[in-house]
Amino acid sequence: MPSIIQQSFSVSLRAMRFFFLYPPDKHKTLYRICTHVMYFVFIVPFPSLQFLNLVLQENLDFSQIADNVFLLAEIMCFLPKLYPFLGNSERIKKCIHYFDGAFFEVVRTEHEEILKQCMKMCRGTAILFLVAVTGAYISWSTRPISWKNHIFPVDLWMPYDVKTAPVTYIVGTYLYILAAAAYGAYTSGVIDPLIAGLAYQATSQIKILKHKLQFLSEHIIDEVGKNTKLDAKGLNKLMFVTEYEHCFSQMAFSQFVAAIIVICVSCLQLTLVDLLSLDCLAMVMYLITMLSEIYLYCYFGTLLYEESNTITDAIYLGKWYEYDVKCRKALILLMERAKKPMLVKCGHKIVDMSLDTFSMAVIIVILINSSGHASQRHRLINSSGHAITTLQID
Q: Which of 283, 348, 81, 30 is nearest to 190 (CA)?
């Protein structure tokens, strides 16, 4: 029977195997070679060529700069986001399967229902993200249809003249751009719901723990029969948040930074394109996708924090007054430890994965776009005034 993690993240794990981000049990050397090849072929050259185009090309107008920065920020985020899989894939795999251990097995119907709800949420989120990524990818890859004087969906520096190059060069370059964009988009689209879903798995385990603590006397018989041994080494393995932050902190932080930049530029670009054009549709879909990515991290991080913050309430609601002195002292120690809830941080303890962070990010985006729009209006007013003065002189 598939484990809890396999049932919850079946879609994400299949995609990660396809993109060589999930190490197999055999042929690990070949896997690492394929992982490095995919990373240095599809992830590294793409932003490098786009950055060269931004630096070397002359006479770029404001809309071209905004468009390049928009895509460059998102593509650059793939570099630190996928880099941990090059040398830390085994530890990431162990963290993914953290809750498959014997210690987290459930025997009661109430606990099974909690896990079923969690698995349903994780599967639904992964499928929803894949659908959103597919829509954004298709709308982006078909940009040349409505993008005048452009052959590719993105501006890249090329060692040949695009206007006079052979058709084989154009087709090969276009296929490479599509493949590189697909690799970055779909790997990000399966990793984000996986990371957020693991936080929700931890939330579900805390729900089960709270139920056990509240009805401790009823669970004693079930727990005694499990014979689960916890030595000092086993207790270290139960530090989920520490392991979670070590494996996924860099990925989450890079996504936060890129999302804020992309959302700011997307909102700015919406003021420059026709509302009935395909470019506007692509910007809206991409904006929704980026907001959903950071919201997913923040929402499940908040659920974990709030659920762990109510462990003391579950203990107090139990029949602790019927226990002996030794058990009550143990519960007091547990309540003291539970006063420090689980707060997941990313970027080396810089950013909290919480809805407060999401609200702050949205406020930053609004302020940046408001100042950008104000400066743009100021430039338009100055240019209009200069034109009127010139006409009056003439």
A: 81
